[in-house]
Amino acid sequence: MPYITKNNARNIEFQVNQSRIERIALDDLYKLSLWMLTKKEQQWLAAARAFYENPEFYINHIYQKIEKPDNSRLVYTGGKPAYHDSRDCEALKRDYVNYEIPVEIEGRGEREIHAFREWWKAEEKLLLSNPSRFVDRMSIHWRLKNPPDLRAISADNSGVAVVENFDVAAVEAEIDNLLNAMNEIRRANPTLIQEFGKRTFAVQRGKISIANEEDRATLNDWDKKKSTLKEKLRLFFQLRFNPDLELDSSLLDALGFKRCSSCHGGDLLLPP
Ligand SMILES: [Zn+2]
User: Fold this and answer.
1) Residue 259 alpha carbon to ligand 1 centre in Å
2) How far is the CA of 13 from the centre of ligand 1 (A)?
3) Are residue 172 and residue 234 in the same domain, yes or no?
4) Are residues 147 and 203 in the same domain?
5) Residue 98's pLDDT is what?
6) How far is the CA of 253 from the centre of ligand 1 (A)?
């Protein structure tokens, strides 16, 4: 079965039809109670779980394509995402990395941004073979006063689970530890967590002000722990149900993916 990158998987995971996810049962989302998350947060997680557990069901009953506006901050945009026949495909590895367009270029407007992207594509070989020469050439060609550091402008570089070699039992243990820690915090601050635990978003935005400094710190920490919990649960569902991010090519075709031209070829050896 073909492979996709983690970024592309996450992109699919976040495109849901709101009214459809409200119908997903949440009872057995995780073996322990996720009382600290709102119903909506749990529904989003349930949708992610459905995607890894039963992609066909997810795509037919939960998924809704969301057209994203052109993100002018990044070098590679638009175009169809690709799926790969080989996990060793160079293009698959390249899919992990994107770059931010240098601020100087961005400030020059749409036309320059477009020209910069075209230039980048034309010079891509140099980027791979000699990154520092690539940056030199970029600075000269675009008369940059502050040439960027490639590492500093690399974005979207989340990698892929199989490469990072995550262990599902280890991730599960981390989740359980985190839930224990959160239960402890609630025991120590019952009123604070009861009242504001699910509204830390508003606290962070300054819409709710918390006078006591210690309480504020507790809620900040609570907010971080909730984010970590959600991210780890998504990873857990992926590792448990589809660790290699393998998906049926007919589903990927339906999602608008194209077959990678670099590693596609195995099929040519099959008899017609
Ligand atoms: Zn490929």
Assistant:
1) 8
2) 21
3) yes
4) no
5) 75
6) 15
Are the C-beta atoms of residues 218 and 189 closer than 8 Å to each other? yes
Distances (CA, A) of 86 to 36, 162, 254, 264, 265: 40, 13, 20, 8, 10
Confidence of residue 131 (pLDDT cuts 50, 70, 90): confident
The SS3 call for residue 253 is helix
Domain for residue 83, yes or no? no
Average pLDDT over residues 13-36: 91
Residues 173 and 59 placed together within one structural domain of the fold: yes
What is the Å distance from ligand 1's center to 2 Cα? 9
Residues 172 and 141 in one domain: no
Q: pLDDT digit string (tens) for 17-28?
A: 888 988 888 889
Both tokens assigned to 263:
């590693």
- Domain of residue 147 covers 99-154
Please list, in sequence order, all residues whose beta carbon lies within 8 angstroms of the beta carbon of residue 4, skipping any fewer than 6 positions away.
81, 82, 83, 84, 245, 247, 252, 257
For the chain, how many residues are written?
Answer: 272
Cβ pair 154, 99 in contact under 8 A: yes
Query: How many Å lie between the centroid of ligand 1 and the Cα of residue 165?
Result: 20
Tokens of 142: 């675009």
Residue 186 in any domain: the answer is yes
The rounded Å distance from CA 35 to ligand 1 centre is 42
Same domain, 103 and 238: no
- Predicted model pTM: 0.75
Instruction: Report the largest interatomic distance among the alpha carbons of the chain, rounded to a whole angstrom.
Output: 73
**Is residue 90 in a domain?**
no
